Amino acid sequence: MSNALPPLHEGHAPITLQQLFREALYAFEEWDSEVTEPIVTFEARIVPISVVFEAMRECTDIVPNNIVSAVTERLTKPWEGEGPLDTMTFSTAARVMGVLVRKRLLAVNNGISVAAIAADAHTPERPDR
Predict the structure, then answer these.
(1) Is residue 125 scored above 90 in pLDDT?
(2) pLDDT tens sequence across 10-26
(3) What's the pTM?
(4) What would the DSSP string read from start to end of 63-128?
(5) Closest CA to 27 of 38, 35, 19, 18
(6) Residue 50's domain spans which residues?
(7) Is 49 helix (H, G, I), strand (E, B) or coil?
(8) What is the rounded distance in angstroms from the CA atom of residue 1 to the CA atom of residue 48?
(9) 23-52: per-residue pLDDT in tens?
(10) How far is Cα 17 from Cα 64, in angstroms, rounded to an integer?
(11) Which of 46, 57, 42 has its CA nearest to residue 99?
(12) Are 83 and 65 in contact, with CB atoms under 8 Å apart?
């Protein structure tokens, strides 16, 4: 699925990928109590937000201030970077958001794998003998 997104070039993301990151962040903000992970679309393809965050894990571009605020307000501990907040990279933001997505999925699913539930639903019941 990650090959559906444009690749980084020497640590830099194309503007389309940066914009998709912003859309994924907004989708995360609007994520209520749904079981499934939010999605965004890129070139008519449906992409889970975790895939977008994963694609940006190695991006060295600096995050715009409005995205820094959107990411840091979700942290349970204060942001402590090596420099001022405006030097957060997309890599850092993507890693934070990736962890938040995984935590949310665990909380929503109460630690139960949705795939396991689906597999159990398709397993034929055996009568007790």
Answers:
(1) no
(2) 889 999 999 999 999 99
(3) 0.75
(4) PPHHHHHHHHTT-SS----SS-GGG-BHHHHHHHHHHHHHHHHHHHTTT--HHHHHHHHTSPP---
(5) 38
(6) 2-121
(7) helix
(8) 9
(9) 999 999 999 866 789 999 999 999 999 999
(10) 14
(11) 57
(12) no
Q: Residue-wise over 39-57: b if at least 16 C-beta within 10 A, else e?
A: bbebeeeebbbbbbbbbbe
Q: Does residue 12 lie in a domain region? A: yes
Q: Answer whether residue 105 is part of any domain.
A: yes
The number of residues in the chain equals 129
- Among 21, 25, 99, which residue's Cα sits nearest to residue 61? 21
The answer to whether position 33 is within a domain reads yes
Nearest to 92 by CA among 46, 47, 129, 59: 59
Region of residue 14 (left: phi > 0; alpha: psi -120 to 50; beta: else): beta
Is 128 within a domain? Answer: no
State the Cα–Cα distance between residues 19 and 26, nearest whole angstrom: 11
pLDDT of residue 59: 95
Structural domain count, the chain: 1
Nearest alpha carbon to residue 23 among 6, 47, 40, 5: 40
